[in-house]
Automatic annotation (TrEMBL):
<feature type="domain" description="Piwi">
    <location>
        <begin position="574"/>
        <end position="864"/>
    </location>
</feature>
<dbReference type="Pfam" id="PF02170">
    <property type="entry name" value="PAZ"/>
</dbReference>
<feature type="region of interest" description="Disordered">
    <location>
        <begin position="1"/>
        <end position="41"/>
    </location>
</feature>
<dbReference type="Pfam" id="PF16486">
    <property type="entry name" value="ArgoN"/>
</dbReference>
<keyword id="KW-0678">Repressor</keyword>
<dbReference type="InterPro" id="IPR003100">
    <property type="entry name" value="PAZ_dom"/>
</dbReference>
<dbReference type="GO" id="GO:0006417">
    <property type="term" value="P:regulation of translation"/>
</dbReference>
<dbReference type="Pfam" id="PF02171">
    <property type="entry name" value="Piwi"/>
</dbReference>
<feature type="domain" description="PAZ">
    <location>
        <begin position="286"/>
        <end position="398"/>
    </location>
</feature>
<dbReference type="GO" id="GO:0031047">
    <property type="term" value="P:regulatory ncRNA-mediated gene silencing"/>
</dbReference>
<protein>
    <recommendedName>
        <fullName>Argonaute 2</fullName>
    </recommendedName>
</protein>
<dbReference type="InterPro" id="IPR003165">
    <property type="entry name" value="Piwi"/>
</dbReference>
<dbReference type="InterPro" id="IPR032474">
    <property type="entry name" value="Argonaute_N"/>
</dbReference>
<feature type="compositionally biased region" description="Low complexity">
    <location>
        <begin position="23"/>
        <end position="33"/>
    </location>
</feature>
<dbReference type="InterPro" id="IPR012337">
    <property type="entry name" value="RNaseH-like_sf"/>
</dbReference>
<keyword id="KW-0810">Translation regulation</keyword>
<comment type="similarity">
    <text>Belongs to the argonaute family. Ago subfamily.</text>
</comment>
Amino acid sequence: MERGGGSGVWTGMSWGPIFGTVQSQPQSPSPSQRVPDQTIPNLVIPDVQSLQISEEKPQSTPLESKENRLMPIKRPDKGGKLTIRPITLLVNHFPVSFDRESTVLHYDVDIKPDTSASNRSAKKFIPKSDRRLIKDKLSSDDPTGFPQEKTAYDGEKNLFSAVTLSPGQFKVELSRGEEMKSRPYLFTYQFVNELKFSNLEDYVSGKLECIPRDVLQGMNLAMKENPLRHRINVGGRFYSKEFRVEDDLHCGSAAFRGFELSLMLTSQGLVLCLDYSVLALHKRLPVIDFLKEHVRNFLKVSDVKGLENEVASALEGLKVDVTHRVPPQKYMIAGLTRTITRDIKFILEDSEGNPPTKIGLVEYFREKYGKEIMYKDIPCLDLERENYVPMEFCTLVEGQRYPKEDLDDKKSRLLKDISMPPPEKRKTTICEMVRAKDGPCGEVAENFGIEVEKTMTKVSGRVIKPPNLKVGNGQSVTVDREKCQWNLSGKSVVEGKSLERWALIDFISFSKMNACTFIGNLRNRCKNLGIRVEEPVVCHFTGRLDFCSVTEIQKLLESVVSEAKGKCKGRLQLIVCVIPKNNPVRKYLKWVSETQIGVLTQCFCTDQYLANLALKINAKLGGSNVELIERLPGTEGEEHVMFIGADVNHPAARNVTCPSIAAVVATMNWPAANRYAARICPQDHRKEKILNFGNMCLDLVNTYARLNKTRPKKIVIFRDGVSEGQFDMVLNEELLDIKRAICTEDYHPTMTLVIAQKRHPTRLFLDNGGGASHNVPPGTVVDTTIVHPFEFDFYLCSHYGNIGTSKTTHYRVLWDENTFTSDELQKLIYHLCFTFARCTKPVSIVPPVYYADLVAFRGREYQEVVMEIQSRVSSSSSVSVASLDERFYKLHPDIKNEMFFI
């Protein structure tokens, strides 16, 4: 089979003629797949010192030559044609023009301290911010030989110039302040390559096979130079240095507005894609003013003494400028001094050779700086290496992130409202930022010969028809024309599973009367949906002290299961837990119940809707809520099809030790394709490649075969969370790993691999108003103009957006042995979005990816519990060995193939 120059057929032994004769032997199932699942009984924690985590990770053998590597397939046609109506859209893509004959010069940069005799103690690591200062100093020292406005620097190794530079090694003196010696650095750069702008046009027209990333990188940097010099740069986004009065969060932080930008090659050529962005940042405040806003009950300076723990916690790790020196210098706060300011004394070394003398900090500031310290009866700030400075002389450095989790509900809602403006407001703001003086279109971009059209791209889209849905008793359900939602009032689910043996645990001190009311309401709501629910066999009313640890939760659940066994025949089906909102008891419950006890749990907050709760319970029990009437496009015939979703959850940015969590889900039924099983596996910190992808998929295929007495003939894989730079890894490592694990001489299913990207900057706007939300309607597809010049991709908005501006999902098809047309795959994905189990509306991303994201997050909750267990067992290691041990994440056999994650 050959289509679009990019697909081949896996025969179990070799690739077809397109990729030569690279041989690959199928792998046998690992021993762990031939042994029945085991759990860790009674929370017995092994000796973490004796655990041995293998250094060997599963490796995919890369294809030897570049010519034999798998490449993303090309678009099979000129785009889809299915539509119930056309739609005209504006897109935040701004066409970029340039001189085809122009070039940009690429130089390699090396900056290191001058390690001469006078500077041997210089630090080897140079922060990116300092590297930029060094480059700017070189430009100011030699503006003719190294013109500031005609160069763009990434702060690391790459320098791009619009004019020829004279390579060499240059000594740059960077001043650190009036009292400190300037530090000498050696700035070396050498010519790498002359990059032709014509390569961009050649790639778009198909004359060039590989995307000219080096040219794009240089032009991208040129576009970012102007905002880099005038705005706050955080994570590649650029924010205004001032915040609006209405954006003040009144806790030492504010919502700062800005943008993200990137250059993209699309079917219409090179475009600038710019989107609106908002981030909570610390305000540039004197430290004492920050404490008055941030720390509760901090009203006056003397309150520092009574609130030392709260003050230290609020300040530790923040950067400050010290204002008693000229120019101000930046330091990081290590903590508070143990003594108050008036009692701090230190040894002062005399630069003229006189004997050292002991001096008080108050006296030193008076004599050295002519500053009288006002607040002598509070601690000072300890600014790295016992550098003590009074709080009154310290101001927070601008541009420091304020953790969203530290905001209360009211401030979180305000930040969310600012971050999610309606479409018309977002569109106007984006256009203003493109035209702004501190925006991307500055002098440097002009010197590189880059011109940007200041109006958005107009594109024709299509709205495709929603599917027909069926519910209980063979009835169809009407899908709303505007929102594509449906109502189950007066209708039942397709298949309601009876809940006969269940328990209720109350963690919020329900009265028994309230508990009876809740049980009665839940049973009635489930009955209306065709789900029979009996009275609970156990009702347990507990207090907060019962769930202060994992051990207590395990004892509680075991006692409830034991009590239930004495009252009914058969295994307990479900434990419904009424818990406070955002309470840590949830993660304890989930880890214990899903890895140790093997009983499904359903957590419930009192402000949840019972109808939604009923849908979740039915899905967990193995029921079916809603199904498609028609078969999914491209899957006609009797052959079984499996849909796989995969995602990796990484730890928070400030965490440098915890593992990443890989999750893979797969459908377990056909043709409804709405029942899923999941697998979880920890892996190395921030490793995006799923190391056990093949083995997890093999386990799921074997489970499918056991449940359905046949293996799927077609497999469609949806991969979430990867950027364009990782496509090659997904194709040539993950996909091959899956094929080697699954395919044998007598079994070689055809596979399609699709990347689902939600984190992209492209936004679609209606050209002429719209419905109540002014957002693009569900079913909107765009597969021309703004898409890749020739690869198989499209944008699909599958949900109704009633808050903010809808964000489409960008689907990128990397591999396709199932020969989908654009229409077939777009329709298939859109229809799948109606099968999500816990709501009565289409979701914004294809369910296999949505579920994989939920499972990966569940794995992150497991990891947090495992870390708590680890801290009790051993505190000798900063890295948890147990947190990488797969046994702690192994799902209990009784629930591993159920939708426990809903």
